[in-house]
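Sequence and structure are no longer studied apart. As an example, we show below a sequence and the tokens encoding its fold:
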Amino acid sequence: MIRKGLQKLKLENIPGRILLALAFSSISALALITVFIIINGLPIIAKTGLWNFIFGMSWAPSHGEYGIFPMIVGTVTVTLGAALIGVPIGICCSIFLSEFAPATLRNIFRPAIQLLAGIPSVVYGFWGLLFIVPFIRDYLGGPGLSILAGSIILAIMVLPTIISITEVSILALPRQYKEGALALGLTHWQTIHAVILPSAKSGIVAAVILGIGRAIGETMAVIMVLGNAVAVPESILDPVRTLTTNIGIEMGYASGPHQEALFATGIVLFVIIMVLNASAQYITRKK
């Protein structure tokens, strides 16, 4: 009996060990990618200097100049523009789906929003190139390929992330919150503003941070609509180049120190996204 019990315990432990091995394999892949990027990118940072690399204003690989500050500014401005457009729309859509939409509309809107997440990014870029860029050029001025065009495209692309997580955060709240507020005489809108949104704040913040991380990491769509000019922009109608587009455009023909500089750019981008994801996890767990 004891032997049979031990054998049964061993058999029951096998699935857990298999799952543990699979979990370690995914972590190992992340570790290998991280080590590979760091090994290939650190030499040029050590040669150029961290300050000169991050805050340098000139990116001219043929002359040995590797300053990525204009691309950092481009990344920040495009991402900030996407957040300013996408976050209010995403939160409003989440409130509508969770509080106002009848079941029929919810069954239509939710699959449609999920479909947005499945559309390839190059399709977004092509659509922006055909419609958004000419509209900006004809009615607002400038070349059309600009921060504004990239922000609009990225805002659309981050909507599924923001809407889905925010809606789940709102629906996860205890029903007593809403019922208690209504029982005290608050209107539906007052309940949403004073009770539901503050109570779901941690989930909403996490959704915004993850959406921003998604926007920062996007490449193909923004390559097509930003104009890819390595310069600090003066207005939202100016073309810019982001960190991801710089890697995507030049990695195909780069070699030597130029290639190392692109890997170093990847290190900076990797750190930014890791900080954003860690912040989202921390905020969610803390709450």
Residues 2-48 form the longest helix (47 residues). The chain has a mean pLDDT of 87. The beta strands are 59-60, 65-66.
